[in-house]
């Protein structure tokens, strides 16, 4: 399953490296999909399986197995992220209606990845009792928290660009947006690579690699969009990685 996820990451990269996926600011107005859902409903439905599937796997396991403490914390990190993405983020987003086709594939991925990460941590993972003090766990945890903080803060800055009912795009300002166009994407990539280091597992590294291949190109296309659309866009900003790319 992890190898298949890695292959899907490469496929995603090949499909969207040159041409962005057609939603949001990259949607072709003359060729809009017929079926769309409001952004809040779409994000809720898409992200829900990533929270629900691990919870169901844990509930169906008899007796429950999440030992030692490090394993419980790792499972909580994954579910914590998707609790936020499912039950908090969608109700504050002000995005445009979401294409049903992309919602369908996004939901399938969340079911797949939720099962992969949850099954590994609940049924397969074996960690020593002192894993919480291991340098891999502590450094990965710090990266995870840093990335999640950047991601949430960047989402907040993006929401503040629009008043209720507005659909126009503006130049993001503040936070890590001072240095990169895709600050929210950078935060999520850091977050999942931190999770991968903390778990030190193939499923988590495959997911981090998929995240990089999926939203990395989107950050690059956002950067090109801003440069093309706004003549006063800061030329010093990078697409994704501060001071590098």
UniProtKB/TrEMBL annotation:
Keyword Signal: no
Subcellular location: Endoplasmic reticulum membrane; Microsome membrane
One GO MF term attached to the UniProt entry: 3-oxo-5-alpha-steroid 4-dehydrogenase (NADP+) activity
Pfam families: Steroid_dh
Membrane topology label: Multi-pass membrane protein
PROSITE patterns listed in its UniProt record: S5A_REDUCTASE
Chain ranges of the 3-oxo-5-alpha-steroid 4-dehydrogenase C-terminal domain: 97-245
Spans traversing the lipid bilayer: 98-123, 135-154, 192-215
Keyword annotations: Differentiation, Endoplasmic reticulum, Lipid metabolism, Membrane, Microsome, NADP, Oxidoreductase, Sexual differentiation, Transmembrane, Transmembrane helix
Reactions catalysed according to its record: a 3-oxo-5alpha-steroid + NADP(+) = a 3-oxo-Delta(4)-steroid + NADPH + H(+); 5alpha-pregnane-3,20-dione + NADP(+) = progesterone + NADPH + H(+); 17beta-hydroxy-5alpha-androstan-3-one + NADP(+) = testosterone + NADPH + H(+)
Organism domain of life: Eukaryota
Gene3D superfamilies: 1.20.120.1630
A GO biological-process term: sex differentiation
Enzyme class at the top of the EC tree: oxidoreductase
GO cellular component assignments: endoplasmic reticulum membrane
Enzyme Commission code(s) on record: 1.3.1.22
Family of the protein in this entry: Belongs to the steroid 5-alpha reductase family.
Physiological role: Converts testosterone (T) into 5-alpha-dihydrotestosterone (DHT) and progesterone or corticosterone into their corresponding 5-alpha-3-oxosteroids. It plays a central role in sexual differentiation and androgen physiology.
Protein's name in the database: 3-oxo-5-alpha-steroid 4-dehydrogenase 2
